[in-house]
Amino acid sequence: LRTGVIMKEEVVYCSRCGHPTDTLYDVEGDLVCRDCMERESFVCTRCGERFWEDHNDGDEDTPLCEECYYNGEYLSCFRCGRVLTEDEARYIDEFGPYCDECYEKEQEKEIIHDYSYKPEPVFYGKGLRYMGVELEVDRDEYHSSSPQEDAKEVLELANDQEEQIYIKHDGSLNEGFEIVTHPMTLRYHKENMPWKEVCHLVVEQGYRSHMTDTCGLHVHVNRESLGFGEIEVEATIANILFFLEKFWREMICFSRRTEGQLERWARRYGLEKQGSDILQKAKKGYYGRYVSLNLENKETIEFRIFRGTLKYNTLIATLEMVNEICTVCAQLTEEEMQDLSWIEFVKRVSNNAELVQYLKERSLYVNEPVTGEEEL
Description:
The protein has 376 residues and is of the alpha+beta class. It is built from 14 helices and 18 strands. It has helices at residues 34-40, 66-71, 100-109, 147-158, 186-191, 195-204, 230-246, 248-255, 259-265, 275-283, 312-331, 334-339, 342-347, 353-361, and strands at 2-3, 12-13, 20-21, 25-27, 30-32, 41-43, 50-52, 74-76, 83-85, 90-92, 95-98, 112-113, 131-137, 165-168, 177-181, 216-222, 293-294, 300-307. The strands form six sheets. The protein has a seven-stranded mixed beta sheet, covered by helices on one side. Strands 1-4-5 form a three-stranded antiparallel beta sheet. A hairpin with a 6-residue loop joins strand 6 (41-43) and strand 7. Helix 4 (147-158) packs antiparallel against helix 6 (195-204). It is elongated. The N and C termini lie far apart (70 Å).
């Protein structure tokens, strides 16, 4: 603050309130007493100069003079008026800017949320292992209904009693969206989540998943279900990485993706002598999230290898497959994983009806192929 001269031999008066004072302070050229200065002025966050309160172009938390507000790359939240830097501002389909709090409130109103939308998870079912599904669907642009209208129907179907799914935009899709579940046990996915009805509705709306070039089916698994303590969890993850690499050809067949699609969306890490070596490669972070097993999330691991599908049997079989891989890899040692054969693995899954059916359709079940319905 800029301080006036202390007057000792004569009384001076505040130009704001008129009261006598022995010290004057300069606020925008006005000489005022300390009370008026503290009560009715502010210090600009950016330039440090003092201005009258009614000249504050910022807010209570970030007071700014007019020049600094407009020249300092500041914005105001469209909803609440809070001052933001350009880095803090968030947008919804180019609308905004919004602060974090208002962004979340606006997203709650949206049918199809922004890609970065992530609500507080709700866990469904009772058990240790929970799986969250991200199912991408897409279509061409020549339809009478909009994706917003279609997404609303899907939400009404799946969220009849409570929010089990939400829907997000995905930049890789043309006129589609991503159906995302809250974490659910495998049993809940099979018995309570209306996957069969959702798949049927989305197909009726004109969407496809397998029959596109980009759609994927991603499955998140909570890390705490993979072992007790960090050492056990990491050992299981190492075994999962080894499993995917060792049985890469079988997993390609299971995933229904082409080599080119996997290279773009779910690259492999490369087979090593042991899973711990692959895990060390993965930890270096050179691969990003577009890998067969994404480890960037601290709470979950994400299987990204699978192609999207709107065929109920394939979807459930994929969840059963993920569950079996996690179970086997948590039970076996690193040495036992090296000795495991594909035939020995598929013999373990005989109590999963949808998975066995799918493995037979893909000629992956002890050379016992069968025909199934067309993928969508």
